[in-house]
Amino acid sequence: MEIEIVDFIVKVAACVCGKDGIISQAEEKAMLNLIILEYPNYPLERFNQALDEFFDETLQIEDYLHKLARSGLNPFIINICELSASADGLDIKENIALHKVKLILGSEI
Amino acid sequence: MSHFADASPDPKSHIKTLMRIGYTMPSAVSDILDNSITANAKNIEIHSLPGFKEPNISILDDGDGMSPEELIQNMKIGCKDPSDDRERGDLGRFGSGLKTASFSQARKLTVISKKEGEPLCAAVWDIDRIESENAWCLEILDENEVKAHPLLLLGSKKESGTQVIWEKLSCLNKTNHSLDDETIMASNLSELGNYISLHFHKFMDGKNKRNFSINNAQLQSIDPFMTRSPGYQEGRSEKLRCKGGYIEINTHVLPHFKRMETIPLERLGGANGIVQNQGLYIYRENRLINAGGWLGLAKTSQLGALARVEVNVPSSLDQEWATDVKKSSLQLPPRIKKELRKFLADPIKRSKRVYTYRGKQDKANKYWNIQENENDKTISYQISAENDFLIDIFRVIPKEQKSQLIKYLGQLAENLPLNHIYEKMSESPRDIDQESVTDALLEAIMSRVFEEEINE
Fold first, then answer.
1. Which domains does chain B possess?
2. Which positions ≥6 away from B105 have C-beta within 8 Å?
3. pLDDT tens digits, one per residue of B121-136
């Protein structure tokens, strides 16, 4: 596992869930569960650090996805975005962001 | 071609604007306390020294203190950029609090400070001088002048600390018919004590405890949620991750008024205060900013009086929450409003339940119930409405007689000879015989009816 790749996956999911500047507990928990299921060795500290970095960075969803372009993990990325964002109900902004992820990755699936 | 002209504010007019920024005396002092906490002070003392011709207020702390250069820098109005990121626990924001808060309450501000290993230093803003000179002239005292200052409390023995002195007080609001200065000051300080005890209550307990005192009287925290009172209910909580940390939301339901202890109830403003101050309690870095009110998210109601929603916000979100210079108000961002709405229904519903709870009901037997009301602290014996025999009677008798019977049963229960029963049960319980009362009753009614018929 390339740990930086997982960091970027976390940040893409954070982009979808945290469109308004906050990520709810349910969303964060869903995100973490899915990450741990797929990458059991990914440390919790790293997960927290990735989310903290996300709030301090000005990168857009496209920028993060660009870094994941050749990862071959598109189904997992779409899945984590969809499940974590809908953990406490999918609002309009989250839905638009999710659609964007699907649109960008869809052409490569 | 366009050109630029110097349009910097006139000091004389500008200072008048700064004096009317809208602080109250407690909110102004709180702004100074914010600085003390940020400077890692463990002991913060407020003094109003007696024996002077003019009243004065001193706020003394044992925090990090300032060097002479830092003091001059911090005496400048707007000495910090509001958009700069602040460290966690830093309660400042605009770099204006010390000055604007002080100018709103006093015409003379003296700051005496000492940093570890540095000499005592002091600087004075005097509004009278600013107005007469029409210039921002900050007076810097030399060491001897500082040591000879009549209001100096910050001893040279103390390793570090800061003393803020307010003189020429404008906060006393004196009119021709006002009470004397000392009486007004005593009343102001009492109000200030309550304000600090509530707004800084999270700094008064726990591992990061600080000591606050007014004229050497230690202040005790006021817990707006009464978490240690019997009957307190803790509700849902949630942590929302955001820039710079978490927004924490906790819901609380206070115990019913009747179960509250007298002193905490009085300190929270009595029953009226409890009703008026229901709602959101928003903390910025553990300092209470908004004490109650639903900020448009719910309606204030008598039944919702016991509901409280605690929101803890990091200072990194100041811009999104539109924190003002006084740090006494803020605006909820739309997403937070949406999140908070999810939390309001539960404490309000539970507050209503506490209010309307009539206590537990036990069956004494199939004819009598015992009602214990925990809120009113009362016990009453009531005729059971679920008795099969009574229900059968109600089914067959006409409507008019039903109301007569209800009235009679009500009177019967109200007039239960409890004292008499208690007395006899205590004296001679074995003599009481209720087994043959039905026959006796029947006999008495029959003989009365028979008598009436003969008379007719």
1. 11-217 (3.30.565.10), 233-356 (3.30.230), 387-455 (no CATH)
2. B23, B25, B28, B29, B57, B166, B169, B170, B171
3. 999 999 999 999 998 8
